[in-house]
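4.2 Preliminary Data

To establish feasibility before requesting continued support, the project team ran the inverse folding procedure on a target of 715 residues. The structure was first converted into the token representation described in Section 3, and no sequence information of any kind was made available to the design step. The complete token record follows.
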């Protein structure tokens, strides 16, 4: 006997071979298959008299088969199946190309329904490669699956067509649609005016009308987002049951610190710092995301939190995604805390260092960490490797990191009775509602304004004809002692670097091809180096930087660039995150069409880090209207959030914000841009958990939630 949990392998029409293919679509059980919803629908619901058929139309007709013919054209090597059907109003031909097996299933005098595009041939109108379905004279329009109705079209994979999916799903629906459990509380179904589950699942696949299809979709979208909201809210509630070290705010010390800075904090920085310091006073672990555009000054804010924590007698861990960034934070923070008696140390897979000390082995450093001699440890992922134990860690700061597991958090400290506070920082501009869902377990703070000394970076899209002018401009800037970044999408011509995920900062959107064609030239760093150093700027000091280089080498190059010993730094996207070189005033990007707007914005944030006027040149060879329009948004806007919205419109949420890593189901993914639904599900989830924190009264919902949580991999 089949049931909802039966493996698809055991469904008679499916079997092992198809089961394997279905697995690629994430379908393992009968229930999974029934919840595999169409990506779209074809409207073949209007069956028209043959006489009314017009060229260019997608038409659905039905009638009796008058003749079936099979021919083979030797010239083109094609099999052509030709079927003529007739109804009371006339005859029409259907042609199928290279589907010779059709002859076996289509016979004279059978009735058939056809749906497809109408073309004009030399013998009149014909349907080319139409969808077809046998019908029976006594029930002509009833119970159609592939024609004569609104037809579900699924995302397919090799060997699994929509036609086949309809063929297997429909009988399973007939058998199971009334057996699918209603996981939503009845009062919620009523309040939201949802179709009951048995009806909804049917209408999602074989809708009577588009209104029904929408109603069904709305219900399942709600369900998915509700599960997502429940899961993050529960996670947060669980976390709040832990204890943390309360760190009272030392207002005098904070004032002293801000006074020691060479600049004044912006109002936003001040507010964010205050919120964070207030969080740290509580005996429950802080769980906060600090968002702020590139260059908005997040580091200072986190340094205040770190200093205050140290003054309360605890340790701080500060983690950055790359060696370069971690080192930069180590130098910057050590510098800021120079007068404040805090021992700052650095640890990465490559080395260890203690501020103000000549040499230290990793072993010595770890010892000092465990005895509490080191106050702030800054580093890469190496911080969560084995053997790294803090004496009494009270605060973890994450810079542009992916999610950080609760377990990892507990692992870091010997002090087992408490859990460290967490401050996560990102420049990825996620709209607030979206963040509230995807990071529903985090509180949000936003640095809204940029430091006052910043000038707007002048951005220009440069087509082929203006290249020379841009080069002249760059020469001039360099003459005045400024630094130039050049970004190329690839290292070598054949290298696949550009299509790989950047290793740093999971939040940063991937490179992607936008209207890119394979034979178009891809600028490669090495090739570009040849060109720039030999032809364009023979007198300037140009250096390459790319991901595969040794960390020490990268760092040395960055330092040389910072000091002004390099004029032009030619690089792949490795420089995209956080590197601070105030003397750099030009960001020139080759193949700009290949990057998302958010990523271009990240690149641009590398310049404009001083009071000097900075520039961003977007070089593009892609002349399409759409590309122009997209890149022009960069000229107009210097706001990362606006650009992210633009990206969202053009590319959809699936491509944005590194969402691939969230592992969300497709329906949830599609609905992440539906802010209204996000808010609705959030408030429903909250209400539900307030009434029943463990969902004990809703065992079916609870079970589904568990299943959902196993599927998404947040950590
Ligand atoms: P991000 O938010 O991108 O991490 P950083 O913290 O690296 O930005 O800050 C960028 C630069 O701005 C640093 O050189 C920092 O010293 C400087 N900075 C930070 N806050 C201010 C401010 N309020 N006024 C002027 N400069 C500032
Ligand atoms: Mg930063």
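Position-by-position output of the design step:
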């Amino acid at each position: 006997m089949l049931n909802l949990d039966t493996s698809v392998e055991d469904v008679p029409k499916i079997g092992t071979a198809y089961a394997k293919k279905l697995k690629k679509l994430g379908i393992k059980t009968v229930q999974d298959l029934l919840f595999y919803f169409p990506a779209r629908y074809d409207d073949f619901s209007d069956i028209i008299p043959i006489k009314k058929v017009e060229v260019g139309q997608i038409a659905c007709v039905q009638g009796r088969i008058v003749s079936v013919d099979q021919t083979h054209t030797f010239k083109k090597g094609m099999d052509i199946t030709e079927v003529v059907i007739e109804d009371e109003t006339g005859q029409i031909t259907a042609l199928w190309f290279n589907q010779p097996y059709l002859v076996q299933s289509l016979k004279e005098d059978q009735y058939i329904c056809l749906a497809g595009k109408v073309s004009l041939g030399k013998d009149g109108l014909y349907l080319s490669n139409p969808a077809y379905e046998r019908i029976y004279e006594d029930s002509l329009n009833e119970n159609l699956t592939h024609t004569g109705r609104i037809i579900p079209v699924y995302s397919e994979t090799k060997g699994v067509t929509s036609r086949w999916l309809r063929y297997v799903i429909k009988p399973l629906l007939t058998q199971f649609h009334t057996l699918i459990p209603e996981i939503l509380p009845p009062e919620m179904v009523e309040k939201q005016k949802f179709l009951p589950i048995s009806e909804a699942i049917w209408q999602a696949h074989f809708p009577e009308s588009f209104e029904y299809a929408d109603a069904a979709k709305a219900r399942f979208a709600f369900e998915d987002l509700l599960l997502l909201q429940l899961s993050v809210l529960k996670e947060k509630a669980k976390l709040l049951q832990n204890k943390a070290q309360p760190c009272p705010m030392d207002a005098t010390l904070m004032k002293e610190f801000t006074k020691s800075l060479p600049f004044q904090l912006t109002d936003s920085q001040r507010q964010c710092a205050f919120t964070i310091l207030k969080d740290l006073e509580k005996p429950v672990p802080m769980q906060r995301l600090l968002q702020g555009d590139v260059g908005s000054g997040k580091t200072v804010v986190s340094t205040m939190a770190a200093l205050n924590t140290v003054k309360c007698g605890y340790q701080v861990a500060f983690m950055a995604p790359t060696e370069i960034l971690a080192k930069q934070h180590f130098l910057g923070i050590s510098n800021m805390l120079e007068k404040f008696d805090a021992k700052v140390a650095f640890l990465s897979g490559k080395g260890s260092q203690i501020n103000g000390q000549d040499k230290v082995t990793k072993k010595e450093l770890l010892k000092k960490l465990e005895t509490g001699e080191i106050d702030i440890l800054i580093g890469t992922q190496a911080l969560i490797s084995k053997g790294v134990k803090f004496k009494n860690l009270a605060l973890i700061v994450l810079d542009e990191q992916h999610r950080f597991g609760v377990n990892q958090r507990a692992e870091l400290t010997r002090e087992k009775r408490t859990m460290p506070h967490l401050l996560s920082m990102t420049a990825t501009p996620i709209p607030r509602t979206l963040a509230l869902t995807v990071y529903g377990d985090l509180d949000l703070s936003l640095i809204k304004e940029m430091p006052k000394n910043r000038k707007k970076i002048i951005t220009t899209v440069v087509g082929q004809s203006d290249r020379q002018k841009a080069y002249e401009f760059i020469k001039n800037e360099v003459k005045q002692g400024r630094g130039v970044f050049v970004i190329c999408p690839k290292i070598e011509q054949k290298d696949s670097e550009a299509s790989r995920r950047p290793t740093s900062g999971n939040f940063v959107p991937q490179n992607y091809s936008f209207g890119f064609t394979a034979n178009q030239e891809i600028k490669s760093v090495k090739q570009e180096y040849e060109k720039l150093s030999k032809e364009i700027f023979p007198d300037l000091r140009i250096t390459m930087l790319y991901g595969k280089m040794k960390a020490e080498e990268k760092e040395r190059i960055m330092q040389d660039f910072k000091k002004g010993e390099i004029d032009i730094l030619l690089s792949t996207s490795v420089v995209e995150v956080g590197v601070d070189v105030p003397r750099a005033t030009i960001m020139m990007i080759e193949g700009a069409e290949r990057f998302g707007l958010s990523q271009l914005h990240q690149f641009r944030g590398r310049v404009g880090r001083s009071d000097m006027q900075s520039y961003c040149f977007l070089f593009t060879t892609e002349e399409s209207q759409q590309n122009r329009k997209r890149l022009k948004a960069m000229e107009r806007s210097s706001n990362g959030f606006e650009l992210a919205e633009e990206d969202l419109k053009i590319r959809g949420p699936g491509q944005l914000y590194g969402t691939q890593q969230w592992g969300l189901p497709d329906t949830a993914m599609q609905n992440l841009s539906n802010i209204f639904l996000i808010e609705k599900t959030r408030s429903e989830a909250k209400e539900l958990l307030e009434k029943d924190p463990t969902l004990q009264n809703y065992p079916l919902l609870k079970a589904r939630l568990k299943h959902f949580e196993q599927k998404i991999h947040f950590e």
